Amino acid sequence: MLTLFYLGFIFVLIFIYLFESIYLKKILSKTTGKQDVIKKLRQFSRHIVLQNGHALLLRAINPNDKERLADAFHRLTGKSIYFRFFSSKRKLTKKELKYFTEIDFEHHIAIVATIINDKEEKIIGVGRYIELEKKTPEKIAEIAFAIDDEHQNLGIGTILFEHIVRIAQNNGISRLSADVLLENKNMLDIFKHSGSKLNIIIDHGVMHIEFNIAGQEFNRYHEG
Q1: Which end of the chain is more exposed for a tag (fewer CB within 10 A), N or C?
Q2: What is the mean pLDDT of the chain?
Q3: pTM score of the predicted model
Q4: Residues 84-127: tens digit of each pLDDT
Q5: Does the residue 19 lie in any domain?
Q6: Which residues share a beta bridge with 179?
C-alpha cells in the first residue's frame, strides 16, 4: 500500500515537472519572439524616394535623438506646435525629450524622417503610436505626427502614416485613434485619403477619429 502511495506521489511530481517544463518553454518562446520583434524595430531603417525625387531616411528614434528632436521642435511654427500639442509651447522639457526618445518599442513606437543637411542628420518629421491601456479584447493605439513646416506638402506625413500603420498591424494593433484640430487640414486629409472607414466625433473644434487597420494596404510610395 505504501509502495503504491510513493509511486503515485512520484507520478504526480513527474507530471508537475513535465507540465512546468512545457509551460516555461512556451513562455520563453513567446518572450524570445517578442524581444526579436523589439530588436528589429529598434533597428528599423528605410530609404524613401519622394515624388519630387528627393531622398529621405525613415528610421527608429533613439535616445541620441534628443538634441535633434529639440532642434526640430524649434523649427516648427507656432501654428504647427499648436496643431501637434493643442497648446503653445516654447520648448520640449527634458522629461518630454526623454519620454519621446527613450521608448520601449513594444507599446510605444516612433520613427523619424531625416535628411542630411551640411553633413548633419536633421529630423524633419516624426510619427508615433502609443498603445492605450483599455480593457478590451482588441489592441488600440493613439497615433500622432509632426512635420517640419519647410517640408510639408511633400507627402512625408502620408509616408510616416503608412509605415506606422504597417508596424502597428504587425504588432497586433487592430484599431488606431487620433485627435485632430479641425483647422489641421493636412492631417485630416491623410486620414480621409487612407482608404479606411473613419468613425468621427467632433467636440469643441477637435475631431476624434478611430479606424480599423486590419487588412488595410498602404503602399503609395516606394523605397530606395
Answers
A1: N
A2: 85
A3: 0.80
A4: 999 998 999 999 999 999 999 999 999 999 998 888 999 999 99
A5: no
A6: 208
- Judging by DSSP bridges, how do beta strands 139-147 and 120-131 pair with one another? antiparallel
Residue 39 lies in a domain: no
Residue 109, class by beta-carbon neighbours within 10 Å (0-12 exposed, 13-18 middle, 19+ buried)? buried
How far apart (Å, rounded) are the C-alpha atoms in residues 223 and 45?
11
**Whole-number Å distance between alpha carbons of 40 and 176:** 22
- Residue 83's domain is classified under what CATH number? 3.40.630.30
Is 95 in a helix, a strand, or coil? helix
Q: What are phi and psi of 178, to 5 degrees?
A: -155, 150
Q: Element (H or E) spanning 12, and its range?
A: helix 2-42
Cα distance between residue 30 and residue 173, in whole Å: 17
Quick one: residue 134, left, alpha or beta (phi over 0 = left, psi -120 to 50 = alpha)? beta
Alpha-carbon distance 73 to 67, whole Å? 10
113's grid cell: 524622417
| Complete DSSP assignment for 135-198 | -SSSEEEEEEEEE-GGGTTSSHHHHHHHHHHHHHHHTTEEEEEEEEETT-HHHHHHHHTSSSPP
> What is the domain count for the chain?
1
Asked if residue 26 is part of any domain, the answer here is: no
Give the three-state DSSP class for 217: coil
Q: Are strands 120-131 and 206-212 parallel, antiparallel or unpaired?
A: unpaired
Structural domain of 87: 44-223
